[in-house]
Amino acid sequence: MTWVLASTSPRRKELLAQAGFSFAQFRFHVVAPDIDETPKANELAQEYVCRLAIEKAQAGLALSAQFDQPKVLGSDTIVVLNGVILGKPVDVDDAKRMLALLSSNTHEVMTAVAITDGQHTVHRLCKTQVSFCQLSAADIDAYVATGEPMDKAGAYGIQALGGCFVESITGSYSAVVGLPLVETRELLACMMQQT
Ligand SMILES: Cc1cn([C@H]2C[C@H](O)[C@@H](COP(=O)(O)OP(=O)(O)OP(=O)(O)O)O2)c(=O)[nH]c1=O
């Protein structure tokens, strides 16, 4: 059996390692899934994020034919504000727009994690509330100029400079960074039994 992480995110690899799922011990290989991330018409945010996590795992499985009995983990993170999905910013102006929306507001970070071996697919959704302090236009400009927001849902990284904007968090910190560790551990244990 081989574990495969279907992700280009260095943060997901680090979180797996942090949780003790060291790549050497579990023989985690990494593949880069490429899926269409366009939301479907009338798709709810939580349906969308779960679908993407499952599709990333399935796309990763299709890239894992060289491995022995691969079990593939995929994950997706979105920021949701008043029902509106904020994914990764497409450009600098989009990042500024998102940060202005998050200023002085509470949003929800949704992260879904899925594991598939082709026969069995399991997934979990994790929701975390994050409250931002007030951001001035100068704060936003300076933060966006660092480049940090550009590859992150909602245009911020709680684990880095963006953490300075977070007044409070209710839920899973690891899920906000990209992988909910409690849920991931449960899913890995569940799939370990499916041999
Ligand atoms: C809100 C938030 C998101 N993020 C990141 C987690 C995810 O990597 C990213 C959201 O994009 P995703 O599409 O979930 O993931 P990805 O494109 O980075 O990686 P892959 O699909 O290959 O697995 O935003 C942070 O790092 N910190 C944060 O505080």
What does this protein look like?
- The protein is α/β, with parallel strands linked by helices and 195 residues long.
- It has one domain: Maf protein (Alpha-Beta Complex).
- It contains seven helices and seven strands.
- Strands 1, 2, 3, 4, 5, 6 and 7 form a seven-stranded mixed sheet that branches.
- Strand 3 and strand 4 form a beta hairpin.
- The protein is elongated, with a radius of gyration of 17 Å.
- The N and C termini lie close together (8 Å).
- The mean pLDDT is 94.
- It binds thymidine-5'-triphosphate (TTP).
- The site of thymidine-5'-triphosphate (TTP) has 24 residues, from helix 1, strand 3 and helix 6.
SSE arrangement, N to C: EHHEHEEHEEHEHH
Strand percentage lies at 25-35%
Count of DSSP H/I helices: 7
Number of domains: 1
Shape: elongated
Low-confidence stretches: none
Please state the structural category: alpha/beta
- CATH topology description: Maf protein
Q: How would a textbook summarize the main sheet?
A: 7 strands, mixed
Q: What Rg do the Cα atoms give? A: 17 Å
CATH architecture descriptor name? Alpha-Beta Complex
| End-to-end distance | 8 Å
Total beta-strand segments? 7
Which molecules are bound besides the chains? thymidine-5'-triphosphate
Average pLDDT value? Answer: 94
Proportion of helical residues? 25-40%
